[in-house]
Amino acid sequence: MTSLDDVARAAGVSTATASRALSGRGRISAATRARVRAAAEALGYVASATASSLASGRAQNIGVVVPIMDRWFFASVLDGIATRLAPRGYDLTLYNLTDDPDQRRRLFDTSLRRGRVDGVIVLSVALTDDEIAALGGLGRPVLGLGVPRGGLPALRVDDTAVGRAATEHLLGLGHRRIAHIGQSVTTDAAGTPGRTPDVDIPTRRRRGFEAAMADAGAPAAVFVPADFTVAGGHDAAARLLDGDEPPTAIFAASDEMAYGVLTAARERDVHVPRDLSVIGVDGHDLGGLFELTTIDQFPHAQGERAAEAMLAMLGDQAAAGEGAAASDADSPRRTEASEPALPFSLVVRGTTAPPRG
Amino acid sequence: MTSLDDVARAAGVSTATASRALSGRGRISAATRARVRAAAEALGYVASATASSLASGRAQNIGVVVPIMDRWFFASVLDGIATRLAPRGYDLTLYNLTDDPDQRRRLFDTSLRRGRVDGVIVLSVALTDDEIAALGGLGRPVLGLGVPRGGLPALRVDDTAVGRAATEHLLGLGHRRIAHIGQSVTTDAAGTPGRTPDVDIPTRRRRGFEAAMADAGAPAAVFVPADFTVAGGHDAAARLLDGDEPPTAIFAASDEMAYGVLTAARERDVHVPRDLSVIGVDGHDLGGLFELTTIDQFPHAQGERAAEAMLAMLGDQAAAGEGAAASDADSPRRTEASEPALPFSLVVRGTTAPPRG
DNA sequence: CTGAAAGCGCTTACAG
DNA sequence: CTGAAAGCGCTTACAG
Q1: CA angle B58, B61, B64 (to 5 degrees)
Q2: Cβ distance B180 to B251 under 8 Å?
Q3: B34 Cβ contact list (under 8 Å, min separation 6)
Q4: In-domain check, residue A52
Q5: Contact B212, B172 (CB under 8 A)
Q6: What is the DSSP code (8-state) at residue A332?
Q7: Keywords on this record (chains A, B) (predicted)?
Q8: CA(A29)–C1'(C8) in Å?
Q9: What is the pLDDT of residues A298-328, one digit of tens each?
């Protein structure tokens, strides 16, 4: 491995000058810079990330905490983040958040604290208060995406509005007997019971559903708790469809749950959308295949936005260190955590239609 | 941030001793070790990864090169890798391989060479010779998974056997007019034309298909090139079904392509499996929803295996450095790159049946 | 088993 | 604009 000293020697300058020429920090004459860069190029020099990090305190690396990364939604967000980080020269290290308490503790108490990352983006629906506190104690920018509100600067879609939009689409078609399949939130992903109500995504979608139903004077809104999976959606729909008064429309809290609903309907020869309308949430990439009506929340774009926001937070931090020039209140680069809610959009396809009769 | 010096001071030992006590390297009295660990615990000490890496040369970090991470298959492999790395204390940094030549060059010539990773796992179907050479020049273990053969130690399934197994399942049901939808390989993912034939996955699956057809004395095997996507499968199937002699069975080179085939069939009122049998490859998580018959290749397990193999390669390297005690030939930890092929398994569901009549 | 010292390869005040 | 020097926070021969 050729080192910076090799480059400096080849260019006939000191190591310090070589460093400045290559990094662009500090004043350097154009001639010297060119000479050093040529030498670096000729020698195939690449700066050691660890040495550079240790000396500068900048890791040029963002940590991303993800639960279940083989779920399309998270993979898509991840891809969005990576898309924006790479061109800025930042690496992305992945931290998988499982349900295993020991593993979680190790993640928050050790892995994230090893100084390997400049900031952390957390994509998780369920964190304990201790975990949020641990993130705060990192002394680095932390940004949530899709995390419960409170405790963490975060980017989020207005999930109450999402629930309302989905429900109003069905109401607008003339449905009255509408059921919502969502996640029961008496326990979180880690099995920790008793989270504050009304703060997380499933709960907010449900609130939006209930509010829309109430506003429309529709009969008691039916809610069925289920896992956020195809199987969860399937089983919940089966119960509904086999019940006394099956709904004419189902609002599933995710597209994958909606796929399960479609399967349950097919098994029972309940025709969609003639006998049953179905709407999901996410904008899953296979939604077109199923002709699924959904609320797209653009996960890839969410990832891109999160990456941009993180980069801005790091920039702010750097700027703050540089002096008082940039006043925080008016700075265009100020933390985007207080940004307007992320966009979502109703995509009407073939699984929703007016009820029969 | 509390440093190792703080811990050493608190425990009343030298920094060197504190380091040994915490890392477990070198001989330490049990009493000293306990004292140091207690101090570290009390102070909430976590070693700086960058300092440790710089001093030891071990990054405790594996780089994973992935194309399109929001494709289920890759996300699943990635999850498998992460699953095995975390408990061993290794971080995982993600390198996204796009089709942009500049970005690719930067990845191989710079990012991967910054000394941030101890080894690299490459999940990609298409690398140029230059890129393979760059990986070789890293001076660190590199392991391919699903990469073309040659040039890189790699774990792989026997894709010729996969193609054969899928085809033989259809032949066994009595089909003779079978079409295969796969990827044309005159150009690779980067648009680089002219790769060596017979080395990559799509080509090998196709060879298996052709061999099985020939062995069975079946008429000229029909091959239709397409993208490895739902849309690709759909369009290719549309052409086949609208042709003069539509096949009675289609073997799609991926489950997502098979979904496209199913859609094309449905659009034409071609009933599956009565009028058309369909088989895919992968073991996609939504396969059950479509009742899709497939060749499962257990991507999550592939990721786990790849991680284990990489860890073994790193272990070997360390062992080699320790002396001649472990002879390479008999070592149980020797590189697993030459391991038996990865397993796959036929999963028969509802989309395949004997042809009519 | 333990400690003093050098070193990993950069970056960055501090002088000039 | 450039250089000498200290330092980032660990690890690891080398002695003892």
Answers
A1: 135
A2: yes
A3: none
A4: no
A5: no
A6: T
A7: DNA-binding, Transcription, Transcription regulation
A8: 30
A9: 999 999 999 999 999 998 665 544 433 333 3
